[in-house]
Amino acid sequence: MTADRRIEEITSRIRERSAPTREPYLARIRAKGAEGPKRSTLTCGNLAHGFAACGPLDKDRLAGDQTPNLGIITAYNDMLSAHQPFERYPELIREAARQVGGTAQVASGVPAMCDGVTQGQTGMELSLFSRDVIAMATAVGLSHDMFDAAVYLGVCDKIVPGLTIAALTFGHLPAIFIPAGPMTSGLPNDEKSRIRQLYAEGKVGREELLKAESASYHGPGTCTFYGTANSNQMLMEIMGLHTPGSSFVNPNTPLRDALTREATKRALAITALGNEYTPAGLVVDERAVVNGVVGLHATGGSTNHTMHLVAMAAAAGIKLTWQDISDLSDITPLLARVYPNGLADVNHFNAAGGMGFLIRELLDRGLLHEDVRTAWGQGLRAYAIEAKLSSDGESVVRHDAPKESGDPKVLTTADKPFSNNGGLRMLKGNLGKAVIKVSAVKPERRIVEAPAKIFHDQNELKIAFDAGEARPRLRRRREVSGTEVERHAGAPQAHPLLGVLQDRGHKVALVTDGRMSGASGKVPAAIHVTPEAKTGGPIARVQDGDIIRVDGEMGTLEVLVDQAELDARTPELPDLSGNEFGMGREALRRLPFGGRRRGEWGERVLRAGAAASRC
């Protein structure tokens, strides 16, 4: 039980709503778990194929059915800074497994793409689809049924959600997620943003822009701003799928390696062969999902998780809605200020007390379920710690989280929050539903009422901006306002352009049905608008000059047009035929969800074992 009655009420309604799907899910994973290790029932030919490439010791152990075998799912590639450190992990894991009498094998590699590389490019079209490709690829690897538990090596945007969906699809297997950690701090994020805006204005050239970007993204590890990647790590820890204190330790350090070895040994200790069997499907229940949402709000986390958390929960038979997320936002205090919520990065957050401090503050306030099952084997209070390296440099020791924040401007206490409510909010009105991240937007900029300027593509906006045609219209004397409405435009390029307009004194907002991040910082962005233009949603009936009101305080999204007139308009459906080919997009047409345009994504149930983001 939590101390806060409202948390209990929201958790109870999720549990009741989910019962028709959660109960059959639990029955399936319990039945599968009761079968025991599958290797003992494989034919000799099957088993020989399964360990043909192993060394003599591992072969001897795998030939029986009493040695736990750990499946490694890795998203390693050496182009992505966040995933490059995973190159060393399989050997670390195999050696740690041998030390405790177990074995470990890489079961599957999964694709890992970086939105930072593809945003604004054609490859961006594959990004959200990649989440379910990752879930499928993981399922293929685990389908050999050679494993008693699995560890998941992934960090970034769609990768951890995809891995989580797969881990819950194989919910009878214990699961531990092993992160790589953030890169060390480079060029401050606000300075990087300043150079981007100067480039958008034509005041600096590409050489200076690339120099700034390279100084920001400069080494191995996760990007240090608090976007989806670092929100993923927060979620895995607060939901009990990490070992305590492991989220934000830098790569290639003795502590990082010690945490990896420890996670390996813990995963082998919680298989059905031992006395602490802890299947992933029981760790992630309604309470863990609520804990994840509360953590997201308390840290001002990524808007992308208004899609991903819904799908992750659905993989465990749990029905989470945007309304649940919004209601939890209303009662969760904002305790962290990490860019784009503030000037600090995740290294500053970790140094100020990090996850241990945050979890303790939320527990003491009664805003988290403490009595959850975790991969660590204890309740969530065991995560209110900080992890350190032992004196011998080989293992991890844990101490209580600091009683005081190391930097109250970055991480504060529950009785002195930066805001009394969380960073994400649902918008509702005659344009449908949308999501907005208000924690990064100054209070005086959270309400925009302005004429619309329609774009069907982010490149259209860039062309109009360069030509001086994207300037908002004069509504009344001394007030210049504008609302950019984008249909199926992911719009990452829109943020610096709208930031320029805002700095010039215009009051602007972005309204889009594109599947994109809300890490827009200072510009209010109503994103993931649904119903979408492609399905004839109201956003397809908006015309240039219509007055739109985005109210991030009251949670409304309205076009101020008579409803009868709006209904009578013919929807302007976007032509997305040009999006179906090139840069691998045609390959996705072969898959169960192939051929769907990006705009249809949120309206379907994927066949990869997870529900999409329909709310």
TrEMBL record:
Residues 395-407 have a biased composition (Basic and acidic residues). It is an enzyme of class 4 (lyase). Residues 395-415 are annotated as: Disordered. It catalyses: 6-phospho-D-gluconate = 2-dehydro-3-deoxy-6-phospho-D-gluconate + H2O. Residues 68-381 form the Dihydroxy-acid/6-phosphogluconate dehydratase N-terminal domain. One of its GO terms (molecular function) is phosphogluconate dehydratase activity. Belongs to the IlvD/Edd family. This is Phosphogluconate dehydratase. It comes from Jiella pelagia. The gene is edd.
